[in-house]
Specification:
By secondary structure, this protein is α/β, with parallel strands linked by helices. It has helices at residues 19-28, 33-47, 55-69, 72-79, 102-111, 116-132, 140-155, 157-172, 188-199, 207-217, 249-277, 314-327, 333-338, 340-356, 367-382, 390-393; strands at residues 5-7, 14-16, 52-54, 89-91, 97-99, 137-139, 176-181, 204-206, 281-284, 303-310, 361-363. The N and C termini lie far apart (54 Å).
Length: 396
Amino acid sequence: MAKTIIIDHLTGSRIPFLRGIMTRSLQDSGMEFEQAYEVASLIREKLGEKKEISSLTLREMVVRHLKKTVQHEVLERYSDLSIPPDLITVVEHDGSSSAFSESDTRRYLEACGLSSTESGAVISSLSDSLLKNGETKLSVDQLGYRIYQLLKKEFGNSHAQNYLVWRNFKESGRPLLLLIGGTTGCGKSTVATEIAHNLDIVRTQSTDMLREVMRIMIPKRLLPVLHQSSFTAWQALPRASTDEGINSERNLMTGYFSQSELLSVSTEAVVNRALHERVSLILEGIHIHPNLLERIPRDADAAVVMVMLGVLKQGQLKKQIRGRGALIPKRRAKRYLKYFDDIWCIQSNLLAEADNCQVPIVINDNKERVLREIMRIIVSSLKKDFASTPEKVFNL
């Protein structure tokens, strides 16, 4: 398919059409990622071999499609051009200026526990107020304080305090290390992707991928446990380490821990590299176990948060595993369902261990609620180290 160039109808600048950019703008309007990506893909198909299109014509094309498919508030936020955010200039602490960013502000607000719809309402109210009063140029602290006041007025002190803590953390330059554990099929990858988008974290890593890299480097005959699934790893252990080949819970967890230990070197390397480079990282996988926290340097200048994802209904977990097979056939959903009892057993042990180690457990029964709960856990963990008063955060 030919590349289509978008010509900005105001500045004349030319950029290629990118589905990722359109997906992000639709998400910023309150649309879920899967639906936003589907719309962007359909627009890409409609463009076909078109070589050029103006940004205004492209927006009109998207609006026509949205009128048939989405809720009114999403359409309204996407199509409203009456209050362009680039009319508001924000002056940074170093004196540089930039246009007010709706997407950055939305991520800040969602980090405080607001939904996408609520965040959009705050941004709209803020823009209206600033432009109505002729405030088109503010310092970054002035803008932040206005947002804080709006949050306190509309949503109460809790969300306002969360905003202060999150802003103070972001301006500190310290990285965030988020560890997401959970059994096969519980939704770790999906949650990690959504959280990465919300927090603007570009570096994510799955332990499954680390295991694949190690499998290429180390032959099966040398480390057979590595070449098994986490729920069949016990079958590759020496007989002396198992109950004579019996598929027992003890054997199952011995195999799981043996494989996790093999992966600990690579997971530690990924974590240490992120700490050294001072970049935020989301590390997810079934091999994320509470004992990994003990391997992170105690003097690491980073905010470290671990959560354990779980699904408490067997029927729901089976449904999610079947969904994995439909979306990515190579994941062999049938095989996972064959070993479902073992997968369920591993989850029970992981949740129990997380509870013993006071690692927060998040039940994945509703995507938006899960994301908000993880954000709440992150901000809550930051409160002991970061300021939560407007005087300190905004230099009042």
